[in-house]
């Protein structure tokens, strides 16, 4: 789906694999309940890439006053999808840090969170594909 920079992707996957194994070992040693590997990977990924929107608070925000029409929602969704695709491509070309930093500059916590979710799925699949882990 996305083109990748082999060196960047290989380094990111290697770093994530090391952190995943360390996290699994820590969880096992601390006696915490076993969780599916993808959930543990999601935690590792968020720690590696930085947690989105952690400092943003929304209080008493009335969304009804600015409710978009169906057409506007569709256009917004398409634009958001294109932005996410571009940020994922940036992660594969320049690394996770570059992608996450660019997403943070957009000042949209929802977009950052969605980017993290997409990247977790993409990188987890790359790990599976490279036979580094078995689901």
Question: In one word, what is the shape?
Answer: globular
E-strand count:
0
User: On the 0-100 scale, what is the average pLDDT?
Assistant: 79
Q: N-to-C SSE series?
A: HHHHH
* Main sheet: strands, sense, barrel: none
Rg value: 17 Å
Q: How many domains in all?
A: 1
| SS element count, helices | 5
Low-confidence runs of at least 5 consecutive residues: 52-66
Write the layout of secondary structure elements.
Layout: H1 6-29, H2 37-49, H3 70-94, H4 96-105, H5 109-129
Helix pairs in contact: 1-2, 2-5, 3-4, 3-5
Key features of this structure:
mainly alpha; 135 residues
Please give a structural write-up.
The chain has 135 residues and is an all-alpha fold. The chain has one domain (6-52, 79-129). Helix content is 69%, strand content 0%. Helix 1 (6-29) packs across helix 2 and helix 3 packs across helix 5. It starts with 5 loop residues before the first helix and ends in a 6-residue tail after the last helix. Residues 72-81 have a biased composition (Basic and acidic residues). Residues 51-81 are annotated as: Disordered. Residues 60-71 have a biased composition (Polar residues).
Structure at a glance:
The chain is mainly α and 135 residues long.
């Amino acid at each position: 789906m996305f083109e990748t920079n082999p060196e960047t992707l290989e380094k990111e996957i290697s770093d994530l694999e090391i952190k995943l194994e360390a996290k699994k070992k820590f969880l096992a040693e601390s006696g915490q309940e076993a969780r599916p590997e993808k959930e543990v990977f999601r935690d590792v990924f968020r720690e590696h890439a930085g947690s989105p929107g952690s400092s943003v608070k929304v209080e008493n925000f009335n969304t009804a006053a600015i409710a978009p029409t169906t057409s506007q929602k569709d256009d917004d969704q398409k634009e958001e999808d294109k932005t996410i695709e571009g940020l994922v491509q940036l992660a594969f070309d320049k690394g996770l840090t570059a992608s996450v930093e660019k997403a943070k500059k957009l000042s949209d916590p929802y977009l950052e969170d969605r980017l993290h979710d997409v990247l977790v799925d993409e990188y987890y699949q790359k790990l599976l594909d490279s036979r580094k882990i078995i689901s």
